[in-house]
Structure formats: structure tokens, C-alpha cells
Amino acid sequence: MRISREAGDPDFITGYPNVPNLLCYMFFYGSLVDPDVICTIARLSDMPMVRPASITGFKMKMWGIYLALLPMPPQIPQTKSDEDKINGVLWKCTSEDQFRCLAEYETSAYTWCECDARHENEEEVKECVTFCWAGDAESRELVKGRFDVERWRRYFKASVTGKDD
Predict the structure, then answer these.
(1) Which of 10, 13, 96, 155 is least crowded, fewest Cβ atoms below 10 Å from its Cβ?
(2) The pTM is what?
(3) Is position 104 within any domain?
């Protein structure tokens, strides 16, 4: 599956069969673990069904108040320990419009990566799509830190969804 990395590229989602009936699982972390945020950004009419999942082979840093997912170089051995897991949710994208809306929300600071995710029940979902940091992995803009989803919901969610919880 080839995914063009630029939202303005006419081949942005080339490689997905039957566009615009795009069907792929997307792995979300950070602000997009909140179903209400997915619903708003992807312009869904119903609340999305998400399932807890995790991925390995990546590391996290903070970019301001947001997380930046960084693929680990292939020469670094991958382990399956809990320390190496990135927790988040899986959601099934069903249209090109949804995909484009999510890409616009993520901005050009992020690009697409493929990943394999595991549900809590250990079922593996292959060839998921997630948002990765598009810049230099060694950028001074990125710092070690932890994303606090509850703090984000309390102080920033309303600016995205347009409603207070």
C-alpha cells in the first residue's frame, strides 16, 4: 500500500482500493484517543467505535502540548515489553473525506506511517495507518515528556470540538 505523504498531492491516498470507499484501520494516540474529537474532526454523524490498542517500534516525544510519534530505526532491536508499547485506540476510516479531514487536523507537522497494532485481547491488526512526526527526529522542538489526556480535555478539547464537557 502506497500512501502519498502530502495532503495537497492529488495522489494523497493512492494505493487504497476503491477510493472513495476507503477502508483502513487508523491507530490514534494523544488527542485523537477521544471519540468526541474523532467525531468532530472526521465530521462523523455518529460517535465512532474505537478499541483500545497498542503499537511497538516507535517512541514518543512532546511537541508543545501534543505528542509526536517517531519510528524507531530498524537497527534498534524491537522488544515486546510494556515499556516499548505506545497505547492508543483503533478506528476504522471509511472514506477519503474522513482521511483528508484527519490529515488537515494533524497539519504538515505529521505524515503517515504504517504500523501493526494489537488489541487488548492480543489480536493483531496489520497495515494500520497512524500519524508520525514529519520533521527531524532530533529537532529541538521535541522534548521528553508525557501527554496528559485529562489535562488536554480540560483545557484544550473545547477549542477543537466547540463544546464544553
Answers:
(1) 10
(2) 0.81
(3) yes
What CATH number corresponds to the domain at position 100? 3.10.490.10
Cα–chain-centroid distance for residue 91? 10
114 found inside a domain: yes
Q: Is residue 124 part of a domain?
A: yes
Note whether 124 and 116 are within 8 A (CB). yes
Exposure string of 30-53, with b = 16+ CB inside 10 Å and e = fewer, is bbbbbbebbebbbebeeebebeeb
SS (H, E, C) 13-75: CCCCCCCCCCCEEEEECHHHHCHHHHHHHCCCCCCCCCEEEEECCEEEEEECCEEEEEECCCC
